[in-house]
Amino acid sequence: MTEAAVSVWQLRWRRLARDHVALAALAVLFTLYALCFSASWIEQWFGVTGIDTDLMSRFDPIDAQHWLGSDEAGRDEFTRLLRGGQVSLSIGLFAALGSSFVGTMIGATAGYFRGRIDMVLMRFTDFMLALPALPVLIILAALDLTKLGFSENFVRSGDAGYWRIVLIVTVLGWTTVARLVRAATLSLVEREFVLAARAQGASSWRVLWVHVLPNAVTPIIVATTLRMGGVILTESALSFLGVGIQPPSTSWGSMLTNAQELMASNPLLAVYPGAAILIAVIAINFVGDGLQSAFDPRADPH
Amino acid sequence: MKLGPAHDRVEVIAGLDISLSAGRTLGVVGESGCGKSMTALAIMGLAPKPHAIGGELRFAGQDLRAMPDDARRQLRGAEMAMIFQEPMTALNPVVPVGVQIGEMLIVHEGASDADAARAAVALLERVGIADPARRARASPHELSGGMRQRVMIAMAIACKPRLLIADEPTTALDVSVQAQILDLLLELQRDTGMAMIFISHNLGVVSAVADDIMVMYAGRAVETGPAQLVLTAPAHPYTAGLIATLPDIGHRQKILPVIEGSPVNPRNRPPGCAFAPRCKLVIPDCRAAVPPMVALGPSQRAACIRVAA
What we know:
The structure holds two protein chains of two kinds. By secondary structure, chain A is mostly helical. Chain A has a single domain (8-37, 74-299), classed as MetI-like fold, CATH 1.10.3720. Chain A is built from 13 helices and no strands. Chain B has helices at residues 36-44, 69-75, 97-109, 113-126, 132-135, 145-157, 175-192, 203-209, 227-232, 237-245, 305-308, and strands spanning 2-3, 10-11, 25-29, 51-52, 58-59, 62-63, 80-83, 163-167, 195-200, 212-217, 220-226, 294-296, 300-302. In chain B, helix 3 (97-109) crosses helix 4. The chains are: A mainly alpha, B alpha/beta. At the A-B interface, helix 9 and helix 10 of A face helix 2, helix 3, helix 4 and helix 6 of B.
């Protein structure tokens, strides 16, 4: 009898655990995160630095100490890549999850309650979509955070730039998810099982959480995983505009932008961050696929 | 009962007078679009909004129309439950059936997840599903149509409701499974003493379960009475027509009898008897006024001026 007491979440987890591709992708992602966030230990180990410039060793070739050589300012490329990953991976994760969360909440509310709520929320979404991104970015970048009550120290530290990027990307990014989730919700609430759930006395909250959203997981996850790759690149555009991550800190996006000028002298410097972004985005997509089938038992091959 | 926004309201059900006591089954019969399902949804409090319901709607002494939405919601599932025609679409495709059954107990009785899961297995066993512990973890698409309908029934009876509304519960199933499901419903009714409203367009199925029958046409009851009487001595021409359309085993008919024409659109209901345009016994007076329900003997009533005359 006890084996029957399996919750939906346990079943979802079991389905994910059977998906070897998703597990492998998860392992890749985990390794990437672990490597990136132990960058300072790795620097100590090799006796190199990804931050301080050393003009005597510009464009050093690959050797045992500099696994990927060094860049135009003599910084070790490998550990710089790891440091950049700290920023890119966590911004990718937080900003993509943030925009999906906001988008899902708004889309589901609009699609479920319809009527006036839907009208207001969707016009707001249209408004956000219609905003030209570049001027908004410049305005947000120009905001003096000390005037908003943040301490001088916080504003000067790298954290402020980091969270500013997460916020900007979330604010600009939730609209797509909101529209997708609203469309999915609109069609799901017309389905008979939603009527059946209401006939069983389920509350609106329960209907949304148990019956509507798990069935809308596919568009949510697809949008989120697509978003993650986009966010990593948006971040580089933002850094280029002077919002957020500033030298000597770096990110994959800014390393990529930076390497454009060096295509003639050292094209490999563009390949490394490009490959890192590619690996991360592909891994995230596979994890997304796994999550999708974990939520939908009909996709279960067993 | 009227549907639609205030400026464009259509009367879909009118002058319905139903009463049902515990342990009895009312069969509601009629063509598609005659208001059977809308009646069920109105009783459950799930009719599409915006709508307006006039008259009186009482359940176990409580006035349902005056009840706040939340109280109404707590009644649903606990005191009055409903099962639907298509058990595939009426079950959430991504949630294991055991969890869906257990949800009833979590919502209405505050059961813990573990207790709900155990109860779900017991309920699956109760509705005759073999190997219930394993089936509880199955998703709807892994079960057959009959099993899915059993799951729906298990959900409906989980909180021992006093009223069960079955809206075409066997229409999507094949005949032998139909019979099993009907038997199961009758057995559960015997055990729990619940009242049942059984909606079907199939007179044959209704005759197997109902104590009383109400025949609906164009949002109105046209005939009510004990099942036996209505089926053997139909008073209304529409009821008679429905019975005539039932094919007999053993009589090979080249052409199955039909009722000519199609049901009326509630937007432009003709004055007088709604069935008049299709009725073979129609007289000019039929089109003058809506015929009232007339008692024919102690329990049978019909809305036809030809019977009253």
